[in-house]
């Protein structure tokens, strides 16, 4: 077994963005989305079913993603989610917003008295 | 916002629930399978992988719950669940539900019924656009409301004014319609050619008047109302172009008005005729002949229009001082003109009464909900213990109270419909009340029902949801929170106070009605039949021809078997007709025009006093010797003599007046008449008026085209109607008579609205009494039931039955005392608004207050005796063993 880094809680409201980003790469089923987030984050973010599925329902209702039943690689039926046009726009604006905010936060955290 | 997918997704979840659930299950299962597969690749056995994956995923049901909570449909589902649960709870307690729904139905139904009258009368819609910009011009003097304006003045206003789009003439009156089997009377409006342009009304067929068609000499044309078209002419599609004989003249029908054009002063006639055909149309500047109506130009305010008209008026007053002395102009809109105080205040009082009744019903239901709540403590505690939040409980309880109030509202609406359909004709308003059962009434009822549900439910819901489940579960149903009891006592006290207000109001109205009935009208009208008629002026142009008709008709009618005597009076007392005229007294100092004294005036034929049963106090009545060319004579009433010749003999005195005031024929002349008699005072205008000075002139010397035939019969006069009508037609076969009724009916109509107010408020008071007594009884019975053990212990320890009886009664006395004080205090304030409705009794009438309060207190104490006696008969052995 590999050495797992300590899992961390998600910043409030970022799960939606992460799901949208994951789906921007390729359509994916529920477990795959969770796994992808965990892998890309290097194991920092572990998202359980209790957070994932309500988020899917929420994003579906907003019209940002849509679900489709497809056959999986091992010939089972699974619900694949994909990004809609609206979702793509949303992801873009969310990303921009996020970058602005993290940059600002980074500046604040890096600040020392001398710079003020 | 993605509204549509959200809505569709929610609806899908609601209506294809099974499919949605299945898909969610499948998705979760798939998730688990993927997780297991992943873990097995990492080297676990299937069992290990499954356990680990399940552990990671957590409770699948919880996940599903969380998913469901994401959509709005979950709230709908929760409410639906509450509703079903509430309905089940209510159907399990049919007795409770019936009482609550009936109570609310009474309260809401009474409100809807009264609101439909308010809707019809006070919130009425006028059948023409922007009715508040259609104004009546009035020339007011100190003694005259100045509704009528002379034609020459109208012409000057019309030419010189700058503020109105147009000015138009209007006056309504009875019109004789002949050519059918019998002569008939229709109601006509005599109007200028631009009348319908001013109101903004178009015909549904044909046309309105063309310019110039209202001038003397123009071809006679008539526009008919929709109602006349349907009822009188059977909806004849070829009505246009047909001829009607109206007032002995042939008119061509040129247009039919829309059905909505009705039910206001300006729109309630059967036929609309050119103004110059009105019998009142005179070119005499001193003779106020017709109403003047105008529509304001856009952007012109009423103040500007008033200033404009006032300038013209002062110019006219300067040029014609005799005709225009002491006048000023006023502008009054149609809604103001028709929304008279007389219909507004009884309606508002009734509305206040039903609102009070509804409040009592609310409090009553709130008390019942609280009482049932304490019985439901265990159920609620169990639900709390199982995890229901307080919000959940409040929502559940409010849903139940809303459910009963909506049921009550529906039932109340049925009640209101029934009330309005059965009793609308009794309402003393000329407005179609039935037609007013429209969406406004529905909306009003719905809002009242919702309001009631929340009002009655919110306090019990908040109170009951605040319990401590542990305490309730361990001690069982025995504890009735002390605070809950205080709250319910408060509700009962408030109900009694409100009921006392209604009872005091009802008592005041009963006393006032009795005082009204005790008024002597000045005549004894048993077995007297009356009917009205108006002679066409073109058939009876001269004074002598008019007088001949009246005289001959009275002679013919007097011959009818069963008739004791007959007479003609111009304005039957209390019929709604009356006339007033200025006069001077030659033996007294001269006064300026406009400051002349005025008196009521009436025309009569010789046998009038004996026929109507009004005594002549002094001198003689008119007789055949007072002919057209004989010296002019006049009879005054007692109060006329007392006012103008106090302590002197009025017989032989002289009175001077212009005969234009009493329906002139041709150019008006100043007349001087000698007083030959003094008659008793009569109530001419309103039964509740003080005695007003009145002058009687003989028809023979001041003939008029309008008259009211009065016939005294030896037997019940209603059977004589046909033979009397035939007697009239034997003089002129084309002369219709109308408003055929007995004098007793005329008198009864005077008090009809007061009787209705009295009966309605008494009924509301009775209901209020019943509800609040039920409230008090329920509270005390409940207390006794809940404290049976305590009473048992007390009795086992030596309390006597009579001391227990006193103990319960003491509580009842305390409740009624507090309620009584509050009710009397509130009554003192509330009854002040009734002042204008009362006759012969003041609003602070002590005996009414004592009666209203006493009735409530006594009934409440009597009702509380039952639970008190039950308490005193508690068997200590039984209750203690039960423990």
Describe it:
- The complex is a heterodimer of chains A (116) and B (883).
- A 3-stranded antiparallel sheet of chain A has the order 1-3-2.
- With 116 residues, chain A is an alpha+beta fold.
- Chain A has helices at 14-25, 30-40, 49-62, 85-110; strands at 28-29, 65-71, 77-83.
- Chain A has a single domain (14-115), classed as Winged helix-like DNA-binding domain superfamily/Winged helix DNA-binding domain (Arc Repressor Mutant, subunit A).
- The relative contact order of chain A is 0.15.
- Chain A has 4 helices and 3 strands; from the N terminus they run H-E-H-H-E-E-H.
- Helices cover 54% and strands 14% of the residues of chain A.
- Chain B has 883 residues and is an alpha+beta fold.
- Chain B has 4 domains: 3-71, no CATH class; 131-338, no CATH class; 342-518 and 751-882, no CATH class; 536-734, no CATH class.
- Chain B is built from 27 helices and 21 strands.
- In chain B, the strands form 3 sheets. In chain B, strands 13, 14, 15, 16, 17, 18 and 19 form a 7-stranded mixed sheet that branches. In chain B, strands 2-3-8-5-7-6 form a 6-stranded mixed barrel.
- In chain B, strand 2 (164-178) and strand 3 form a beta hairpin.
- In chain B, helix 15 (390-423) runs antiparallel to helix 16 (439-464) and helix 24 (788-796) crosses helix 27.
- The longest helix of chain B has 44 residues, at 743-786.
- Chain A binds chain B through residues 1, 29-32, 35, 48-50, 53-54, 56-58, 60-64, 74, 76-79, 86, and chain B through 2, 4-6, 9-10, 23-24, 26-28, 30-31, 33-35, 37-38, 42, 56-58, 60, 62-64, 66-67, 69-71.
Sum this structure up briefly:
The complex is a heterodimer of chains A (about 120) and B (about 900). Chain A is built from four helices and three strands. Chain A has about 120 residues and is α+β, with helices and mostly antiparallel strands.
Task: Detail the topology: elements first, then pairings.
The complex is a heterodimer of chains A (116) and B (883).
Chain A: H1 14-25, E1 28-29, H2 30-40, H3 49-62, E2 65-71, E3 77-83, H4 85-110
Antiparallel strand pairs in A: 1-3, 2-3
Helix pairs in contact in A: 1-2, 1-4
Chain B: H1 3-15, H2 17-41, H3 46-57, H4 60-68, H5 73-92, H6 94-121, E1 134-140, H7 151-160, E2 164-178, E3 184-191, H8 195-199, E4 205-206, E5 221-224, H9 226-231, E6 243-246, E7 249-256, E8 271-274, E9 291-296, H10 302-319, H11 321-324, E10 328-333, H12 334-338, H13 341-375, H14 377-385, H15 390-423, H16 439-464, H17 469-475, H18 482-517, E11 528-534, H19 543-558, E12 563-569, E13 579-582, E14 598-604, H20 608-612, E15 616-619, E16 633-637, H21 638-644, E17 654-658, E18 670-679, E19 694-698, E20 706-713, H22 721-731, E21 738-742, H23 743-786, H24 788-796, H25 801-830, H26 846-872, H27 876-882
Parallel strand pairs in B: 3-8, 5-7, 14-19, 16-18
Antiparallel strand pairs in B: 1-9, 1-10, 2-3, 2-6, 2-9, 4-7, 5-8, 6-7, 11-20, 11-21, 12-20, 13-14, 15-18, 16-19, 17-18
Helix pairs in contact in B: 1-2, 2-3, 5-15, 6-13, 6-15, 6-16, 7-10, 13-16, 13-18, 13-23, 14-17, 15-16, 18-23, 18-25, 18-26, 19-22, 23-26, 24-27, 25-26
